[in-house]
Prior knowledge:
The chain is 39% helix and 10% strand. By secondary structure, the chain is an alpha+beta fold. Helix 8 packs across helix 10. It is globular and about 70 Å long.
Amino acid sequence: xxxxxxxxxTASSDLLKEYKASYTxxxxxxxxxxxxxxxxxxxxxxxxxGSSSENTIFGAVKNALNPELxxxxxxxxxxxxxAKEYTVFSIGGDTGGSIxxxxxxxxxxxxKPTYGRISRYGLMAYASSTDCVGPITKSIxxxxxxxxxxxxxxxxxxxxxxxEEISKxxxxxxxxxxxxxxYKNFIENDAIDKEIKEAFLATLAKIRAQGIAIKxxxxxxxxxxxxxxxxxxxxxxxxxxSRLDGTNYGARLEGSNLKDTYSITRSEKFSEETKRxxxxxxxxxxxxFSDEIYLKAQSVRRQISEQFSKDFTTVDMIVSPVTPxxxxxxxxxLKDPLAMYLSDAYTVGFSLGGLPTLSIPRGTxxxxxxxxxxxKDAEVLQFGNFLNDSL
Length: 391
């Protein structure tokens, strides 16, 4: 999904199977300028549409720890390559959890930075208001190095901003965190696996034993978070992918007229999951539904951001499991798209808030998620390093 001039940039899609990028993404160019050597383009869910890395023309990505299980998604290939030590680091795209979830499933580190810290220019757009570029690595120090290289204002992405470099000493210095919050409704429900719940509660006890106060917080229920996120994400992807009709680039299947050509090309070349999201997005944007569904979702998103602002006046960090359940077997997610959407329940809220969020391979079987207020990426890495050493 990242443009690298002269190379195939397929988005794991049949429609773009032969497409070659004519330019290079800003984040990738910064890495090249710093001496990075591009080794592979990695398999992922087509256009980022999925949480299992099965929605791809290249075949399902297998979990690095158990090949019968999914790798997570959409950046499953990125996480597996790092877990298998094929690469020192990989770059993923995180819209609603697509770095954090596969990082958790494959026992590596994944960071979704504050929205706008890294330019999105050259990343194929899924949902532009939450799309983030971020690194997946085997250490927090590697996260810091790669994050510093990619960060910064880019005139080609007006949502990007100037950010301070994170020094080597910041993540390894003692943590200034005094109070950690957690959302009790994430834990006190029947949707979470017993194993993950018990491990998370044990992790809270270990954090408390370090002299850090623990505060239970109230938050929006998972079904509200998931429905709000997918309403907005589907609407944005319907708009972003409207340009892919076989006219200017990508595969083209001829019909009896131009309208037929558009219809046949998109029907045959988009995956079932991508078509599901485009249809859903067009539906919520259509007359009669926009006010009732889309605008209501925007209102809920504002309320979510306001809740985060309120919570961070009383706590320094928020921790949570990365997912409510362990990774499913390959094939199960494709049979039950709703279950796949619900696997994002603990990640999408932080995406809607644009917050920096780190997944570390500690705390639960699918990792621990650490979140701070906006533009506190250094603090997230610092506390993540502290917990990685103390848990």
